[in-house]
């Protein structure tokens, strides 16, 4: 399997103009482990490195992306085939990001996301996620 997670992490680190050590502190992991993730293997034995779900959760929180997105980027799941329970949003920014990806819902509803409180954004995002979950279950073949 291609090391898409490693490429993604390296790209995010480069965008932020951070050293390996600085970025690892942001992510809450050791710099040696980040190096292994970016390279996709342990340099000592050449074996592939796969993060735990807890590590992926911490990375997703630190980068303000959903766990689903991170799993998709990592190549562990395909976006249209995610069949897991929806995770609640860790931050208003993550919730807003989710809403903005649902263009039809945000545009159709005429919501003014700029004037909504963080709690309102979180609540709306949870409602949207639950609606999408219900619709996807009803239309699965």
Automatic annotation (TrEMBL):
Gene3D superfamilies: lambda repressor-like DNA-binding domains
Highest rank taxon of the organism: Bacteria
Keywords: DNA-binding
SUPFAM superfamilies for the chain: lambda repressor-like DNA-binding domains
Record-level GO cellular component terms: cytosol
GO MF term list: DNA binding; DNA-binding transcription factor activity
Name of this chain's protein: HTH cro/C1-type domain-containing protein
UniProt-listed SMART domains: HTH_XRE
CDD domains named among the record's database cross-references: HTH_XRE
Residue span(s) of domain HTH cro/C1-type: 9-70
């Amino acid at each position: 399997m291609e090391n898409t997670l490693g490429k993604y992490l390296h790209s995010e680190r480069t965008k932020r103009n951070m050293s390996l050590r600085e970025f690892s502190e942001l992510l809450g992991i050791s710099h040696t482990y980040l190096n292994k993730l970016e390279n996709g293997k342990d340099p000592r034995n050449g074996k592939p490195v796969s993060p735990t779900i807890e590590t992926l959760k911490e990375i997703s929180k630190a980068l303000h992306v959903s766990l689903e997105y991170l799993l998709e980027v990592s190549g562990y799941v395909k976006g249209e085939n995610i069949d897991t329970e929806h995770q609640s949003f860790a931050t208003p920014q993550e919730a807003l990001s989710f809403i903005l990806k649902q263009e039809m819902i945000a545009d159709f509803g005429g919501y003014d996301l700029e004037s909504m409180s963080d709690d309102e954004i979180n609540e709306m995002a949870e409602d949207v996620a639950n609606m999408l979950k219900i619709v996807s279950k009803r239309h699965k073949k």
